[in-house]
User: What shape does this take?
Amino acid sequence: MKRQEALAVLQSMTTSESLLRHARTVELVMQAYARKLGEDAEKWALAGLLHDADYQAYPEQHPKVIVGLLREQGQEEIAQAIAAHYSKWGQPYNTLLAKALIACDELTGFVVACAQVRPQRLQGLEAKSVIKKLGQKSFAASVDREEVRIGAKLFKVDLQEHTSFIIQVLQEHEEELQLQAQTGM
Assistant: This one.
């Protein structure tokens, strides 16, 4: 599957701007990690882009619809990673791709939430501030903090370094993601 096909699949099931941005941010982070680790950047990016593709259209079936579609197209490794991207689903983490996806999903969303409440957005955002905010349960309350910790442990990354990496990747795309500093404040 090529990115254009994956984007069409995503857009056929997702209209929410925030979900589309989340898909793009996770895609960018996954792609960057693949490059850093010498993995298949296109495959990792597609897993990030499509991991929540059916969430809006089929919330009760998520992620079964997108997983089924990917399996029909012979994309088993991506399908398995998406099937396992939440630890409470009880799916195995047989690949580095699956471990990376669970490590990047919730935390990337949390970093974006942290950036959105700052006038400088991503500029100057530091991992220690993000990690401190993780301790504030009322902030971005829908983010599963335990999932963030489980993901980092499975992926075998230090939480601070992992958070810094995500921030750096998103900073490189801040304009596209509309997360650049607010002017005139």
